[in-house]
Write a structure and sequence with these properties.
The complex is a heterodimer of chains A (406) and B (229). With 406 residues, chain A is of the alpha+beta class. Helices cover 55% and strands 18% of the residues of chain A. In chain A, the strands form 2 sheets. A 6-stranded mixed beta barrel of chain A has the order 2-3-8-5-7-6. A two-stranded antiparallel sheet of chain A has the order 11-12. Chain A starts with a helix and ends with a helix. Chain B is built from 7 helices and 10 strands. The longest helix of chain B is centred in the last third of the chain and has 18 residues. In chain B, a hairpin with a 2-residue loop joins strand 9 and strand 10. The chains are: A alpha+beta (406), B alpha/beta (229).
């Protein structure tokens, strides 16, 4: 019956309650939607990192990441290849030759990282072939083809069909150069990546660099799911302990940090919103208590104990905040669902986001973590907001309260 | 059989600025089934005396013993429980819970006492029928007249089967017909339920119906008369 009275008490002053509930709804909506927006943004950044840039796990020579010298090679690829085939959690893997070099067009030049790939294997690991905005992917039977990013194409003032010169150092230290034809221009979400990475067939690059067969600098591994990462990382590490095995989180600590920090940031954001709401609710509940001094005095007089008085005020406060909270979550769910189809276009600030590797169209995501954590926080806020009005109600003395005319 | 015994009761209000000697050494006793009016001019101490007997206020001196329990020495939580199971209250301004129906208002105190739903339903229907509101059980207080609200308040006071009912100016806000009607109902229930009724009043029509009339002045009893025996 106390819960029933608390529910009915909320609707005594419908306008006031609706104003407060609307305020809570909008506050919670803002918090939850922002959370879903940033979660979507980070998810997309992680997806780009895994699908386009690093894959889940990479294998290198122990010295390569510290010193990306051409000589820091993985020399026994065939042996590794045999062993990796036995991992059921691996969906695909691709070896790469990686060198830093210069690229030159008729007009200008730039420092770049050349990624020598086996296109037939690479398409199972990364999605560069899906990011082409001009031209096409590698054609078999044709040599010295190159894929470059849109930013680099812009910088070099080249387009598909243009010729570029790659200059670098061979395995024995001899300087070398070779001509390549731009067959495709790609564009990923990460403009820095687009400006500094080019793709060449590993067989072409091997010739230019005079590298031995079956020697690579990197093996990119794609797992069947990101959830398998930690376990597979440990397994691969223990099997190839003479090599450097790193996850995408270690290779891109900035992305990993964003993933870890976004939840904490959004919890802090929600707490700030809820602190504001708590004060609004305390104010409303104090008004409700002061308006009902005589009634609370009567309840105490007829024998309603302190616990039940507190419970009634707490129920009212929690019901009020939960109504607004649930409405806010539902509203956020609807808007997230709609925008998860349409996306939110940030192209007005596109350069800033692209330079950080983020997509300019963000698709918000709503997950169970957000739902559970938001609900817990709303409940806690309700409890906190109810304490002061409940204590105020308890300070009333029935004989005095009954004399007060409100 | 004595229900309430009051010995050497004094109440002084002193907040540092104002000193009021509201009750000045009262000795009283109430038998089971009494129907007693406490009368006197404003400020004579009627409401203070009722508050003390009802455990809503604590005396400065003296003791109030109800069925052998000195309620003046009970701790706050024990006193709340004591009120719940022993005392019924009827207030001048009715003080019903506005969001509940007449029936729910009557049932509320029984809920606090832990009655089952079936028992509550039965008792509330009996009492509301007894006060002439059988057809208004599902009405909220705002849909009832003052007299009807006060009858619900009487039914609520009786619902918990208290040892005594305290009514502070129960007819003060009622027209003469409603007041008389309410008094007749209170008298009937007093007889049927054998509950002690103690009420303060200015209303001479009410005083005439009381079997005992205690007159207060300046916090002292100046007369204690048995009438209508």
């Amino acid at each position: 019956m106390i819960l029933s009275i608390a529910w009915k008490n909320i609707w005594r002053n419908k306008l006031r309650s609706l104003v407060v509930i609307t305020g809570i709804t909008l506050g919670i909506f803002a918090g939850v939607f922002s959370w879903a927006f940033y979660a979507g943004m980070v998810d997309q950044r992680i997806a780009t990192a895994i699908n386009t840039e690093t894959a889940h796990i990479q294998i290198h020579n122990k010295n390569f990441l510290e010193d990306p010298d051409i000589k820091n090679i993985i020399s026994d690829y065939n042996l590794i290849d045999n062993k990796l085939q036995k991992y059921s959690a691996i969906s695909a893997y691709a070896p790469r030759i990686i060198v830093n070099a210069m690229i030159m067009s008729a007009e200008t030049g730039a420092g770049i990282k050349i990624i020598g790939i086996i296109p037939e294997k690479e398409i199972n690991v990364t999605d560069i072939h899906k990011k082409l905005i001009e031209g096409k992917y590698f054609e078999s039977g044709k040599n010295n083809q190159i894929l470059i990013g849109d930013k680099l194409a812009e910088k070099l003032n080249v387009k598909t069909g243009s010729k570029v010169v790659i200059a670098g150092q061979q395995y024995d230290g001899t300087l070398t150069k070779a001509h390549f034809k731009v067959i495709g221009i790609y564009k990923t979400a990460n403009s820095v990546f687009n400006e500094s990475n080019v793709f060449i067939r590993e067989s072409d690059l091997r010739k230019v660099l005079a590298l031995d067969d079956a020697t690579y600098h990197e093996i990119a591994i794609k797992l069947k799911s990101n959830d398998l990462l930690e376990l597979q990382l440990e397994k691969i590490r223990s099997e190839f302990n003479n090599l450097d095995i790193k996850s995408w989180k270690e290779l891109m600590p900035d992305v990993s940090l964003v993933e870890e920090s976004v939840n904490i940031s959004m919890i802090v954001f929600m707490i700030i919103i809820l602190i504001g709401l708590i004060f609004t609710i305390i104010n409303t509940m104090l008004m409700a208590v002061f308006e009902r001094v005589k009634e609370i005095g009567m309840l105490m007089a007829i024998g309603m104990n302190h616990f039940k008085i507190v419970l009634m005020i707490m129920y009212e406060t929690i019901l009020l905040i939960m109504l607004g909270g649930i409405a806010g979550i539902v509203l956020a769910c609807i808007v997230v669902k709609l925008t998860s189809y349409t996306g939110i276009n940030l192209s007005a600030w596109g350069d800033v986001y692209a330079s950080l590797g983020y997509e300019t169209i963000v698709f918000p995501v709503f997950n169970l973590t957000i739902l559970v954590q938001t609900t817990i926080m709303i409940l806690l806020a309700g409890l906190i907001a109810s304490i002061y009005p409940a204590l105020k109600a308890l300070q009333l003395k029935p004989a005095e309260a009954l004399r007060i005319d409100v | 059989m004595k229900v309430i015994e009051i010995k050497g009761l004094e109440k002084i209000y002193n907040d540092g600025e104002i000193f009021v000697h509201a009750i000045r050494g009262i000795d009283l006793a109430f038998d089971e089934g009494e129907f007693t009016a406490i009368v006197g001019p404003s400020g004579s101490g009627k409401t203070t005396l009722l508050n003390l007997i009802g455990g809503l206020d604590t005396p400065t001196k003296g003791e109030i013993v109800v069925n052998g329990i000195n309620i003046s020495s009970l701790k706050s939580s024990k006193l709340i429980d004591f009120r719940l199971f022993n005392i019924g209250f009827v207030f001048q301004a009715y003080n019903l819970i506005p969001v509940l129906t007449a029936r729910e208002n009557v049932e509320f105190i029984m809920t606090l006492q832990g009655w089952s739903k079936k028992e509550r339903r039965k008792r509330s229907e009996e009492l509301l029928t007894a006060v002439g509101l059988a057809d208004r059980m599902e009405a909220r207080p705002s849909k009832l007249s003052g007299g009807q609200q006060q009858r619900v308040a009487v039914a609520r006071a009786l619902a918990s089967k208290p040892k005594y009912i305290l009514a502070d100016e129960p007819t003060a806000n009622l027209d003469s017909k409603s007041a008389e009607n309410l008094l007749d109902i209170m008298l009937k229930l007093n007889r049927e339920e054998n509950v002690t009724f103690i009420f303060s009043t200015h209303d001479q029509r009410v005083v005439k119906k009381a079997r005992r009339v205690i007159t207060l002045e300046d916090g002292k009893i100046i007369s204690d008369i048995i009438q209508n025996e």
